[in-house]
Amino acid sequence: MTKRINIELIFLIGGLIYLAFMNPSETHFSLCPIKNLGFSFCPGCGLGHSISYLFHGQIQESFHHHPLGIFALGVILMRILKLIKIANF
To answer: How many CB atoms are located within 10 Å of the residue 60 CB?
Structure first.
């Protein structure tokens, strides 16, 4: 029996790998539609940098970029574990 590939699992793991290896202090292109429309404030912006700073061990800088970064990383990791458990790897 062939197992179906879970796209959500691939994207979550791939995203965390990207955040682990990116340099959070550099600026980069943003996919945020609110920022791209020209608004200066977005409640979600900074979350990726916050998680990246966590991977680099800079907890204070992580909190400065987004106070919910630690919580978001926990939620993502729990979702990954749940998807792996569902897939019976």
So the answer is: 7
Residues in the chain: 89
| Long-range pairs, 50-55, Cβ under 8 A, ≥24 | 51/16, 51/19, 51/76, 52/19, 52/20, 52/22, 52/23, 52/24, 53/24, 55/19, 55/20
Helix/strand/coil (H, E, C) string of 4-47?
CCCHHHHHHHHHHHHHHHCCCCCCCCCCCHHHHCCCCCCCCCCH
**What is the per-residue pLDDT across 5-21, written as a single tens digit (0 to 9) for each?**
789 999 999 999 999 99
* Residue 5: DSSP 8-state: P
The single-letter DSSP state of residue 22 is S
Longest dimension (CA), the chain: 51
Q: Residue 65 is encoded by which pair of tokens?
A: 């970029």
- pTM, entire model: 0.82
